[in-house]
Amino acid sequence: MSQETWSAAESYICGHLLGDDPILQAALAVSEEAGLPRIAVAPNEGKLLHLLARALNARSILEIGTLGGYSTIWLARALAPGGRLITLEANPKHAAVARANIARAGLADVVDLRLGPALESLAELAGPFDLIFIDADKENNAEYFRWAVKLARPGGLIIVDNVVRDGEITNPATRDPMVQGTQRFYEAMEAEQRVSATAVQTVGSKGHDGFAIALVTQGTGAE
Q1: Cβ proximity of 77 and 24 under 8 Å
Q2: Residue in 112, 94, 168 with CA at minimum distance from that of residue 138
Q3: 221 in a structural domain
Q4: Is 36 among the domain residues?
Q5: Which of 38, 80, 106, 168 could form a disulfide with 179 if both were Cys (CB 3.0 to 4.6 A apart)?
Q6: How far is it, in rounded angstroms, from Cα 136 to Cα 114?
């Protein structure tokens, strides 16, 4: 199978099940024009995040890693009435682009974008959150996951993106700090007794990667 086939299949899925969305398309276009890296979630993964948040009837969502706000919009649109989303971004340029995209989507009143290193921002948060999406620097994924377990409610979901890395997670000799961070994340998830988790490989416009989902099954420090 080729990258061309994977991308074509993704386009077929999105064409049938997602349709056109000018707001989301503009968020991607503005982000690209601003020079942000093209690493936002694929549209079908954005829709998956949206559906999971709706299935949870989520009123409180935490996102670690805003980038240009594309996934933020998908998640914020799924909030139950009166809900709130907090998103953490370390890069001032990314945050400025995201704020504009979020405002254009009419979601500025439900999204709280906090600028600064995520590990510092996480220490200032009080949960519980219904859903936590982690898509930031991979080197710190294990620590982000540990914070997510503390901040999630029992029955809540923790979703972590980019956890396959072209299959390099299986390489014990890797020198790639992002892969090493992902391997530490798996070790942290394996050791955590308060979650039940799995990971799914994906192929598409982003190549060969995947995401992990953890269900918080026991009470945490956020209760």
Answers
A1: no
A2: 168
A3: no
A4: yes
A5: 168
A6: 14
DSSP 130: E
Cβ-based neighbour number of residue 144 at 10 Å: 25
SS3 81: coil
Q: Are residues 115 and 95 in contact, defined by beta-carbon separation less than 8 angstroms?
A: yes
Instruction: Quote the number of domains for the chain.
Output: 1
CATH number reported for the structural domain that contains residue 83 in this entry: 3.40.50.150
CA end-to-end distance (rounded Å), the chain:
47
Confirm whether 222 is domain-assigned: no
Instruction: For Cα atoms 216, 217, 218, give the angle at the middle one, nearest 5 degrees.
Output: 100
Distances (CA, A) of 27 to 22, 165, 203: 9, 25, 23
Question: Within a domain: residue 32?
Answer: yes
Q: Which of 220, 199, 205 is nearest to 14 (CA)?
A: 205
Name which of 134, 137, 119, 138 is nearest 181 in CA terms.
138
Domain that holds residue 189: 3-216
Q: How confident is the model at residue 222 (pLDDT cuts 50, 70, 90)?
A: very low
In the numeric block, which tokens belong to residue 123?
Answer: 């220490």
pLDDT digits (tens, 9 = 90+) for 120-177: 999 999 989 999 999 999 999 999 999 999 999 999 999 999 999 999 999 999 999 9
CB 37 within 8 A of CB 91: no
